[in-house]
Design brief:
4 helices, two-stranded parallel sheet, mainly alpha, about 100 residues
Length: about 100
Amino acid sequence: MKKRLTYEQKKDQAVVDLINEMFKTAGHSVTYHDVVGRTDAWYNDWTITEEQYDQWTEWGKNYLMKNLKLTAPKAEREMSMVGLSWGLKFAKKIKQ
């Protein structure tokens, strides 16, 4: 029988899944395990577009609501905090 995860374990797994999905959405072949333990500002090494960021935050909101049983406003707030803490820098828009 598979042992159930504690809420803390689910939160830890959520961080891994959210960061992995952020890299995937932004089109980078990097994972959480590639950046874990780095003490530099690793999130500045890669970029994400505003559209990709919006797509990722929507995915993350739904993930948190399903897996951590958060309400929509709480999940949105958590995604804002994740984005501030570990979000990739935005790609500069090219003027046409």
